[in-house]
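Batch 3, record 17
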Amino acid sequence: MKEDILLSVRDLRVNFYTYEGVVKALDGVTFQIRRGEAFGLVGETGCGKSVTASSILRLVDKPGKIVGGEIIFEGENLLEKSEEEMRKIRGEEIAIVFQDPMTYLNPVLTIGEQIAETIMEHQDLIKEIRKSGKKPSKKMLKEFVRRKVIDVLRMVRMPNPEMVIDQYPHELSGGMRQRAMIAMAISCRPKLLILDEATTFLDVTIQRQILELVKDLKEKLGCALMIITHDMGIIAEMCDTVAVMYAGTIVEYAETERIFDNPLHPYTRGLLEAIPLLSKERKTLKHIPGTIPNLINPPSGCRFHPRCPEAMKICRIEKPKLTEIEPSHLIACHLYNGGR
Amino acid sequence: MRRLEGRFEELLKEYHPFIKEFRHTLYLIRKSPLTLLGVILFTLFILTAIFAPLIAPYDPYKANLKEAFQPPSWRHPFGTDEMGRDIFSRVVWGARISLRVGITVVSIALCIGTILGGIAGYFGGLIDEVIMRVTDLVLAFPSMVLALALAAALGPGLNNAMLAISVTWWPWYARLVRGQVLSLREAGFVEAARCIGASSARILFRHILPNSFGPVIVNASLDFGWTILTAAALGFLGIGAQPPKPEWGLMINTGRVYFLEKPWIATFPGLAIFLVVLASNLIGDGLGEILNPRLRRR
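Prediction for the assembled complex:
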């Protein structure tokens, strides 16, 4: 069972050193992703989902710094790797798809050139051509890469790949751009594909298509997925396990069904109650009172206690630990940790 | 022969996208009459420079004192100067000098400026600080004064004048490129490039700089005219090209003395400068729209 684990993040801490003070964006994030599993990370805006993703690639930007914890990928701690080694991992082992494909595609390069870049960066094509018994020439390399790019575009079911390969991002529709982004991400067959709000900007029908595509690709490539979203629907549809994040910490972590059937943490319950349901009669939508706390000066103890309907004395004093209360169901809440 | 034809068709097919793009560019140029005018003038200028020996009816250097100070006529369309040299021939040969000045100065300034500005903007911090303060230092002088001083210090001559102008010109590009890079550095596709494991050099030269080229090229085509004007000014002041070179600024300088009685000596080289600078400005303005990939297909 143990060797099945692809990525294991333990007690990850990231601080942002801003002018106003130190923002503790991630305060002990712990989760695991098994090989070929679809893992979901949900939470409100600003709770640290995207920072978690960029920490895994070790691309936390300047005022931010990873200050503690470990990220074990394939048995090796990514935080101990050199920049050079990390460059090899990015794109080849771990790839990411962002939410807004327009800004994440380079407007002056064709789709083909951008996908080719990833392939050329990570694969020794000249060796591959030699292996096939032919003498590598510049023209051959060009054709070889082109064929590979078209293959990748076919894999993401891009309509007209032979034409799209020579087109610029602005000539494509939103859905096609997102397909191109996914093509870039999977061109080296990564072991872990991170989708950072990858469908948020698309309309619902396209969103559906993209999700179907991602599901198929997961089957075909056997890669693990890490789906970052604030949409519980996507989680229910796609994920095997879920971690619920609140203000830089994981508050609940379990299999998807268990979270939906039996949410234990008050925050998770709040999230699920805030989903409008068509089947039930109309009533005012429930919401979680208050807003996300200021992370420069977060609430003492449990970060959720000011908004928690079941807050107790201890919640203000002590930070609850993430503990397993039933097999593979982890919760960070005093309600279940013998706080009673 | 048949095989050759096949090869040709293959080539045509391979370059089809480029031909398509080129056709589209021509279409865009045709749509704006001022740009078209600029392109026509500029093409004439370049053709004149290339075919100067064929176009010029006389040797631009050969003095003929018997024919000095001839007004424009069929024999000498632009008249002759104080040494009896044919001004039309000299203006035609002068196009070569101006073309050389424009290309050399703009490309030197563009290369230095782009690389330094790109590095300053991308890496930031101390490197940025050092490069930009040097840039400010150069920009603090009025460019004409600095070019004059440098050209005078290096000694008169066209090559020294070009060098002097290049030195005063690169900081504009460094600033322009740095500004572009600063905004592009935060762009999504840069982050995406980092996420696929691209190196800093690759991100800077393949992703950021090509995206910042639009305004740089527009600026370069505007500057093409300005550098020619500046070189002519240096020539006029006597520290650029030296006589008997048929340089336009120098010709205006010699014509200046006789301007009231024999205006043609200074007028025609002046007109040539005016037209080239105008053409370069018109193209620069038009290019801004044509080169923008987002506005291309509308």
